[in-house]
Specification:
The complex is a heterodimer.
Chain A (H helix, E strand, L loop, with lengths): L1 H8 L5 H8 L5 H13 L1 H18 L10 H10 L26 H16 L7 H7 L12 E3 L10 H12 L5 E6 L5 E6 L5 E6 L8 E8 L6 E6 L6 E6 L6 E8 L12 E3 L2
Antiparallel strand pairs in A: 1-7, 2-3, 3-4, 4-7, 5-6, 5-8, 8-9
Chain B lengths: L8 H21 L3 H23 L2 H17 L11 H19 L1 H9 L9 H7 L3 H11 L4 H11 L5 H8 L3 H19 L4
Helix pairs in contact in B: 1-2, 2-3, 2-4, 3-4, 7-10, 8-9, 8-10, 9-10
Classes of the chains: A alpha+beta, B mainly alpha.
Organism (chain A): Citricoccus muralis
Membrane topology (chain A): Single-pass membrane protein
Main location (chain A): membrane
Chain lengths: 276, 198
């Protein structure tokens, strides 16, 4: 125990904050910092597990009979969802404090909310909470987002992976550029490179054709503001390459499947979210 | 890892139940909806009770529980029994969902609650009312009773009230460092008292 305390002194997370974390009593930034550290610090992880076990005793001591219709609601909700074997975005915020989920639960967060939209709208006209939670990492002043999308490589010639590589590398040569990558729910992966100027390239590989009457639509999400449409993603042979300008560096990029032609606001949960 | 306190017939029954739930969860992770229905029946009262305790509204608590259990279904594969009990895991997901909900509607709630907060007094009845489970209730109440006044407030306002430690500090007029440290000492004391095995 003494040794563990000594080790803790070297860590960014002090033991007191870990207790507050176990009680879900820290703010988003602190939570993120702690959970990131838990992934790489087995000593801290063990202490966190012990704290969670204690807190769990507080949790399970308050059972109550759930409403009769809840069972059907839950079971029909899961009937429409497969398991989420692969999280959609590595850089995404982990919503679940719980032991055993830290670090890989981004996909789980987006599972339940869509099913509740209709339900909740009657009482709480809040925007889709998923979108807020997913990008609160980026919480920043709401600056007007002007996104200019061009697809210079499509639809005329067809994109190659070489085109993608070149476009990505061009951006990455800029000082301060960052690269993001994530698997896509439903198959494939998306890679993004963006420069501090906002110049951004998005490359998709292995994406299935959208269902008939559907399109892939891109969004930028900044802070807690509503997602802004950022154009359609046209896929040919699984590949797509898009150049955007003026994407704020603190904005997350997301893709949803929308009715053909796109929507003004997302109508489905994202299949991928990329956040710095 | 050994657990000395808190052992007894009740604990081993709990362990057996947990093993059963782990089995159902494993089957759920393969897409077995029947297993998940049985899992729901076993854990929903704990999840719903916790959600209700925190959001204090039956409809919203049902929403929170639904969200949490869909999360559970989706992430069933990731449950790690080495890290704690199944029900504890489900409750931690539920708690997070409930707290997210509270914080997204915080301003109205703050106003509503400030009226009811009388400074730095203990409010044992409130916590006691929540602890309705037969087996754990007495023990948890007893252990909460071993906390100092500030420890008790810090833990219950945070965990059952959904407040951050900053908000707790503000409410209690205490320093941030003090509140954090009381949370830590309170959990340590609860752990010792409850005999929580790893």
């Amino acid at each position: 125990m003494t040794n563990e305390n000594d080790n803790d002194n070297e860590n960014a997370v002090d033991a007191e904050l870990l207790a507050a974390w176990a009680l879900d009593a820290v703010d988003e930034d602190e939570r993120r910092a702690i959970e990131q550290q838990l992934r790489s610090d087995p000593v801290l992880r063990a202490r966190a597990d012990a704290l969670n076990s204690t807190v769990a005793r507080l949790a399970v001591s308050t059972p109550a009979e759930p409403p009769a219709d809840l069972r059907d609601r839950v079971l029909s909700a899961v009937a429409g969802h497969g398991q989420d074997a692969r999280p959609a975005a590595d850089g995404d915020v982990s919503p679940l404090a719980g032991h055993g989920t830290t670090g890989s639960s981004a996909g789980a967060e987006r599972a339940g909310v869509a099913d509740l939209d209709g339900h909740r709208a009657r009482r709480r006209p809040a925007a889709r909470r998923w979108w807020v939670g997913a990008v609160s990492a980026a919480a920043a002043a709401a600056v007007a987002v002007a996104v200019v999308v061009s697809q210079p490589w499509a639809p005329t010639g067809g994109v190659t992976e070489g085109d993608q590589l070149t476009a990505i590398e061009q951006i990455l040569q800029v000082d301060g550029a960052e690269r993001l990558e994530s698997p896509v729910t439903g198959g494939g992966e998306i890679e993004v490179a963006r420069a501090p100027s906002g110049e951004t390239v998005l490359a998709a590989r292995g994406l299935p054709e959208p269902a008939e009457g559907r399109d892939y639509q891109m969004w930028t999400i900044q802070g807690e503001t509503a997602p802004r449409p950022a154009g359609l993603l046209e896929v040919q042979d699984g590949l797509a390459l898009v150049r955007m300008q003026d994407v704020p560096v603190d904005a997350a990029l997301a893709v949803t499947v929308e009715p053909a032609g796109g929507s003004e606001a997302p109508t489905t949960d994202p299949i991928v979210v990329l956040a710095g | 890892m050994t657990s000395t306190a808190g052992t007894g017939p009740g604990r081993s029954a709990a362990r057996e139940r947990d093993a059963h739930l782990v089995g159902l969860l494993r089957r759920s992770a393969t897409g077995d909806q029947e297993a998940f229905a049985a899992f729901y029946d076993a854990v929903a009262p704990s999840a719903y009770g916790l959600a209700r305790k925190i959001v204090r509204d039956a409809d919203l608590a049902a929403d929170v529980t639904q969200e949490a259990l869909v999360d559970v279904w989706r992430s069933a594969e990731r449950f790690d029994p080495d890290r704690g009990s199944v029900v504890g895991w489900v409750c931690s997901i539920t708690h997070r969902r409930a707290v997210d909900l509270i914080r997204s509607t915080q301003s109205s709630r703050n106003r509503e609650e400030r009226a009811g907060v009388a400074g730095f007094e203990r409010d044992r009845d409130d916590a006691a009312e929540a602890l309705e489970s037969a087996e754990d209730r007495d023990r948890v109440t007893e252990c909460l009773g071993t906390l100092t006044g500030l420890e008790y407030e810090a833990v219950t306002q945070a965990y059952y009230g959904g407040l951050t430690y900053r908000q707790v500090a503000e409410r209690l007029g205490a320093k941030l460092a003090t509140v954090k440290s009381r949370m830590r000492s309170a959990l340590q004391r609860l752990q010792d008292c409850l005999g929580v095995g790893a």
